[in-house]
Write a structure and sequence with these properties.
The protein has 423 residues and is an alpha+beta fold. The chain is built from 16 helices and 16 strands. It is elongated and about 95 Å long. It binds one RNA strand of 76 nucleotides through helix 3, strand 6, strand 10, strand 11 and helix 12.
Length: 423
RNA sequence: GCGGAUAUGGUGAAGGGGUUAACACGGUGGAUUGUGGUUCCAUUAUGCUAGGGUUCGAAUCCCUAUAUCCGCCCCA
């Protein structure tokens, strides 16, 4: 038997319904926020991700799906959404002929070659947003508000918003230097992974789980102390606007993110429910004022975030949140014999096109099993089509909940159903 | 890339070397019930992830592979 590829999953049944419900909600929310829908290719030139995400990041060095096409081009399945959107923004010259800022949203599969575990897949879906052309801290907060509001609309309660700032590139590199100087004498006290981080990405030492309780961690330099005036002011304003929207947050000075392109604001929303797997970050994002330039566009500031659908659904599960999903049908049609199937089938299709959810027996079941099936499908009404009904055009329709039966002319069925199928 | 656990039907699973692989749910057929939801009967894995090995005999013991789950790293 051929099995699905490692780290992938199939969607069907209740999971599929919930997914569609959430996707709908996202679409509606983005419409209200007036964001523009973007869909960029699932594969892009490998260079895009190398330069966009960062040559040294784990995502690029060991997690991408790279391949050559028949024309010997180097391509990569996108490991994240931002690089593609930025590429599209630049390539379509949106800095020129679009209203500023450009607010984009996207939704789709991402690919990372990682060892699967709870809350982590090789093919996973992200919903995300990118805003180009404004460095107003209000935009940072608008972006943070999107996942926060989405979670709120879905009913999630056990969440925590963490924010931090890395400052602009000047502040960021001053801080990085200070951090390296601080940790250098203690290098031997750090765990193996941190020794590695010291060279590759010293900021990440701060959120190491192994060394978290070390005394030296407590006295490590904080980003806040290395911010220049503009950066400081930006962060203060972010906090101000968060308060204006009544969004609860915690400043977590150890929060740094794995992608190279962030400047100023970074944030993550984590699930606090107990029992949630160790991958408890539901979404994350931040500002990236240099990325567009890095990818050969004009100097343009940007902010964005991405949210993992699988983790969102897992969080809903852990909080036992029921989504309002329709699990019933309006009508189940039972043709008594082969002779009534064409008549029944025609009526079935007609009612479907008039807006009702209609199912019909496809398996020539006997009456008993058909009724059973109608129950299983949670059908509100059942119709048995026999010789008599076909001849007279008068149909007996049974309310499957009250058991009440009505004899109705075929042409009055639509009205009848309209009146009797309420919420 | 490293570490731990697990692998029996459509589903949940029992069995830890001895002839027909328990039980439950579900499916199908039938009986009963005022046209179903109750009850009853029958039926539903020549096979226990795959490939080797040990043995008179393997779902059960050993090896290898694969897959799944979980943790580390990293990330959403």
């Amino acid at each position: 038997m051929i099995q699905k590829a490692k780290g992938t999953y199939d969607v069907y049944g209740q999971y599929g319904k919930r997914l569609l419900y959430i996707e709908d909600l996202i679409e509606g929310l983005m419409e209200k926020y007036n964001y523009e829908y973007f869909r960029t290719p699932i594969f892009e030139s490998s260079n895009l991700f190398h330069r966009g995400v960062g040559e040294a990041t784990d995502i690029v060095t060991k997690e991408t799906y790279d391949f050559k096409d028949r024309g010997n081009r180097d391509l990569t399945l996108r490991p994240e959404g931002t690089a593609g959107i930025v590429r599209s923004y630049i390539e379509n010259k949106m800095y020129g002929n679009h209203s500023i800022p450009v607010k984009a949203w996207y939704y789709g599969p991402m690919y990372r070659y990682e060892r699967p575990q709870s809350g982590r897949f090789r093919e996973f879906y992200q919903f995300g947003v990118e805003v180009f052309g404004s460095n107003d801290p209000m935009v940072d907060v608008e972006v943070i508000s999107i996942p926060v509001n989405l979670y709120k609309l879905l009913g999630l309660k056990e969440i925590k918003v963490n924010i931090n700032t890395l400052g602009d590139s000047e502040s960021r590199s001053n801080y990085r230097e200070a951090l390296v100087e601080y940790f250098r004498p203690y290098l031997n006290d750090l765990c193996e992974d941190c020794k590695d981080r010291f060279n590759k990405n010293p900021l990440r030492i701060l959120d190491c789980k192994v060394d978290a309780n070390l005394e030296i961690m407590k006295h490590a330099p904080k980003t806040i102390d290395y911010l220049n005036e503009t950066s400081k002011k930006h962060f203060e304003n972010v906090k101000k606007y968060l308060s204006a929207l009544n969004i609860d947050y915690v400043v977590n000075t150890n929060l740094v993110r794995g992608l190279d392109y962030y400047t100023h604001t970074v944030f993550e929303v984590e699930a606090k429910v107990k029992g949630f797997g160790s991958q408890n970050v539901l979404c994350g994002g931040g500002r990236y004022d240099n990325l567009v330039e890095t990818l050969d566009g004009p100097k343009t500031s940007g902010v964005g975030f991405a949210l993992g659908m699988e983790r969102l659904i897992a969080a809903l599960d852990y909080e036992k949140i029921e989504l309002p999903i329709v699990n019933n049908i309006d009508l189940y049609i039972i043709p008594v014999s082969e002779n009534e199937k064409d008549y029944s089938f025609n009526m079935c299709m007609d009612l479907r096109l008039n807006g009702f959810i209609v199912e019909i027996d496809y398996n020539n079941r006997n009456l008993k099993n058909n009724f059973k099936n109608a129950d299983r499908l949670n059908s509100k009404f059942v119709m048995i089509i026999g010789e008599e009904e076909v001849k007279t055009g008068i149909i007996t329709i049974k309310n499957n909940i009250t058991k009440e039966e009505n004899k109705i002319k075929k042409e009055d069925l639509i009205n009848f159903l309209d009146e009797n199928i309420g919420e």
